[in-house]
Design goal:
- This protein is mainly α.
- The protein contains 42 helices and eight strands.
- A five-stranded parallel sheet has the order 2-3-4-1-5, with helices on both faces.
- A hairpin with a 2-residue loop joins strand 7 and strand 8.
- The longest helix is centred in the middle third of the chain and has 22 residues.
- The protein is elongated.
- The chain starts with 6 loop residues before the first helix and ends in an 11-residue tail after the last helix.
Length: 833
């Protein structure tokens, strides 16, 4: 069957048949040639006035002009056509409209950002053998608009018409046959059932029936089945929060609009191409004619669209607020979780349920049965989604939910389901829907209990993860904990608000190792110090000991800060009999002592830590203890002993499958060979270590390995590579706020500048590095000393460089970093001998 072309394509072909240019037709109609150009390309539809003038100029018979105007207004809105225009059809393409072959409502505004969806839905409806297509999706996702747009694009594929049945006002499934009959102008006669009249009317018709908002009359699904069974050419396009669950049904999940990532800086032109941004700008300009996306507001618009997760209704409601608020103010409101109160004031020609986002969600909530409503509000406790196991443990702890409740919420598009890997299913809600669910939870009497169970579940998960990260399942546990960080943050907020201090302290202790592996040092420090500052945190509990140990480990390069924290942690661990806490605190105290040059104390701490780990048969702790003892031997230049301890630690780590530990031991063995001037072997071990860290996404030690590789490159005379590696390491140290690491990287960049003959720059950077390391109380270890002692001593000894050295000591971190990176000498110039 030959379909009708879009109106723009038909207009272009008709104009060319009359040998008219766009300018000629525009002059005759009395509009700009740009208007004709946009109509022909499908970018806009003609106004009624322009359509009437086109009808007159193109010779449309007077009795067909009303139908022509309807055709132009409907078929002109269905997107851009990229195909060559079709020749004018033999039969006037608007005749179906003249004879009442459609009642599609004209969309008041153009559909934006749905080109791919429109194409996919049309292809699905046209496919041979497909009789029923259901557009499913959350409230406000734009199902109706997409259905109407698709139906309009399909006008030429159904010779008996396309008819729209709006079911939003109906809640009784028994009224649906009458609504369909009214849309099709089917008359009842006598006592004959209207269903029979519909089948008779549609039996041989090639017709598309659009059933909008079917979710609230789901009981009428048998009617659809009967119509499809009795009318072989009939096709149905439905919109619903849930499928109709009929044989042969094809579902199309309407997705949110694509949104930009606010953390990625993009220019205005690139942002404007995102459908969500385009929709915001178009709707905002409708209420404020001078609104455009600019360099000043682009970041805020991107944040708005991302925060609203590409939900069209939410974006339209937010855009309407630019009449009163700037995009920056709107973004701030949304990021303060005030989106539901803000998103009001929709167009008055929309149904009441769509005039505020809250109404749209509430309408969907009211259609749920009691068990579904219970699960829905309980799921508001989860932030960032959850696993099926979490739903069962937190929401059904009392076993009071009906079977299949979660599947029903997924079916009704209020909850989204995805395969999360690791054999786990994961469920989530769009943020606005989750916020509404959380509000309903807070209104209920069970809110406190649900939040308590949620907090307990995620503490247990974090504590299991703390153990899992030290063995062969490390990668899986990293991925699992990555996905649950929003829930963990929600537990911290709950603990602080409700005075659950020990719960919060235990949680920071359990997550400390995860934070270190991922390099989340800023968040770790903020969480730990916040929990330790809570009233009641001074009680000498295992939770406090673990939190103090985590804080001390974070600060271990700053001796004066770390030592008292770790001493108190060790004392409490001894008091409460926490052997693992003792192993960890002793190890960290050993590291602090080594960093401060107190090798006797360091050996004592590490040996006691190792002895307790052996007593516990804790293989990860044993490997850790061997590494600590090896560090002391390395610091005392006993390379043979250091190598022996590091190799034994590596063997233990391989035995338990600790990939991070393997990478760490390879780095330590690289240190030994570096100090023995075997640079090729050192480089190979460092590169193997770095590859493992990159593979696992471990930022928490990657910067150290990069620093070591930079020192090897420098020793081998490759100053260009050394400087690049120093800079890469510096970026990671800065990202994590590690001042000692920043100081060491600066010393490396200063050494490179000195080797290249840029003495002034080297002196300033050396001065800044020295000040940073002194402030932390850090004593350079043998690897640091081997790399930096000679050039630093030479530069310090020169009287002519003393003022520059003093200038560097007075520079801020940001000043010296910028100075070190922006103007170094050409790395190709001849190095100093």
């Amino acid at each position: 069957m030959t379909g009708w072309p879009p109106f723009g394509a038909w207009l272009k072909a008709s104009r060319k048949a009359l040998d008219l240019r766009q300018e000629d037709l525009a002059f005759r109609v009395g509009c700009s040639f740009k208007t004709i150009e946009k109509i022909e390309s499908g970018e806009r539809r003609p106004s009624r006035q322009v359509a009437e003038l086109l009808a007159a100029e193109l010779g449309v018979p007077a009795d067909e002009r009303e139908a022509f105007v309807r055709y132009a207004r409907l078929a002109g809105q269905y997107g851009r056509t990229t195909a060559e225009p079709a020749p004018p059809p033999d039969t006037s393409p608007w005749r179906a409209l003249l004879y009442g072959f459609t009642n599609l409502p004209a969309l008041p505004v153009a559909l934006i950002g749905r080109e791919k969806d429109l194409e996919a839905v049309c292809a699905l409806v046209r496919r041979e053998g497909v009789r029923l297509v259901t557009l499913v999706g959350a409230p406000g996702i734009g199902k109706t608009s997409l259905a109407v747009d698709a139906a309009g694009a399909l006008l030429g594929s159904f010779e008996d018409g396309v008819f729209f049945v709006g079911l939003a006002p109906i809640t009784d499934p028994g009224l649906v046959p009458g609504a369909v009959a009214a849309a099709l102008d089917v008359k009842q006669s006598g006592n004959r059932p209207v269903e029979d009249a519909l089948v008779d009317h549609l039996r041989e018709k090639r017709l598309l029936l659009v059933l909008d908002n079917f979710e609230q009359v789901a009981g009428a699904a048998p009617l659809v089945a009967d119509l499809l069974a009795g009318c072989r050419w009939l096709k149905v396009l439905a919109t619903s929060r849930q499928p109709l669950h009929l044989r042969g049904e094809r579902q199309y999940a309407v997705p949110p609009l694509d949104t930009p990532d606010p953390s990625v800086r993009q220019d205005v032109a690139a942002l404007a191409r995102f459908p969500a941004v385009a929709l915001f700008v178009e709707r905002a300009s409708a209420v404020r004619s001078d609104f455009t996306i600019t360099e000043e507001n682009a970041d805020a618009v991107a944040r708005i669209c991302a925060r609203l997760a590409g939900l069209p209704l939410a974006i339209e409601l937010a855009a309407a607020r630019v009449k009163l608020f700037s995009p920056r103010t709107i973004a701030s409101h949304l990021e303060s979780r005030l989106q539901l109160p803000l998103l009001v004031g929709g167009s008055r020609d929309l149904p009441a349920r769509q005039q505020t986002l809250r109404s749209a969600i509430e309408w969907s909530y009211d259609l749920l049965d009691r068990g579904e409503q219970t699960l829905f509000r309980r799921m508001g406790v989860f932030v960032g989604g959850c696993t099926a196991a979490a739903v069962e443990a937190v929401c059904n702890a009392a076993g009071d939910l009906p079977p299949g409740a979660i599947e029903s919420l997924v079916d009704k598009s209020l909850v989204e389901q995805e395969e999360a890997g690791l054999g786990e299913e994961r469920f989530s809600m769009l943020e606005m829907i989750r916020e509404y669910a959380a509000e309903r939870l807070e209104e209920s009497e069970e809110a406190g209990e649900i939040r308590r169970v949620h907090a307990g579940y995620y503490l247990a998960l974090a504590e299991a993860g703390d153990k899992g990260l030290r063995g062969p399942d490390q990668t899986a546990w990293l991925a699992r904990l990555d996905r649950e960080q929003d829930n963990m943050r929600a537990v911290f907020a709950w603990a602080e608000k409700n005075g659950e201090v020990d719960h919060g302290l235990r949680l920071v202790g359990a997550l400390a190792w995860y934070w270190e592996l991922r390099g989340y040092f800023s968040e770790a420090q903020e969480r730990i110090l916040s929990m330790l500052a809570q009233p009641g945190a001074e009680k000498r509990t295992q939770g406090r000991a673990r939190a103090l140990n985590a804080a001390g480990r974070l600060a271990q390069l700053e001796i004066g800060v770390a030592e008292p924290l770790l001493r108190e942690s060790l004392a409490i661990a001894r008091e409460v009999g926490d052997k693992w806490g003792m192993v960890s605190a002793l190890h960290n105290l050993g590291n602090v002592a080594t960093n401060g040059g107190d090798f006797a104390s360091a050996r004592r701490y590490h040996e006691e830590s190792l002895a307790i780990a052996r007593e516990m048969d804790h293989r990860w702790g044993i490997a850790w203890g061997l590494m600590g003892v090896g560090h002391v031997a390395l610091s005392e230049h006993n390379y043979a002993a250091a190598r022996s301890h590091f190799e034994e630690s590596l063997a233990a780590r391989k035995q338990i499958g600790d990939r991070w530990g393997i990478a760490r031991s390879l780095n330590e063995l690289g240190d030994v060979t570096y100090l023995q001037s075997d640079y090729a072997t050192a480089r190979a071990r460092y590169e193997e270590s770095l590859a493992i860290h990159r593979e696992l996404g471990h930022k928490g030690f990657m910067e150290v390995v990069l620093l070591n590789l930079a020192r090897v490159a420098h020793a081998e005379g490759d100053l260009q590579r050394a400087r690049r590696l120093y800079a890469e390491s510096l970026d990671l140290f800065r990202e994590q706020g590690k001042r000692v690491g920043i100081g060491l990287c600066l010393a490396g960049l200063a050494s490179s500048a000195y080797a290249q003959g840029d003495l002034e720059r080297a002196a300033r950077i050396f001065g800044a590095a020295e000040a940073l390391l002194e402030a932390a109380g850090y004593q350079m270890d043998p690897v640091d000393s081997a790399a930096f002692d000679r050039p630093m001593a030479e530069a310090r000894s020169r009287q002519d460089l003393a003022p520059l050295w003093a200038e560097g000591r007075a520079m801020s971190i940001e000043e010296v970093v910028r100075y070190a990176l922006e103007g170094a000498a050409d790395p190709q110039q001849t190095p100093r001998e």
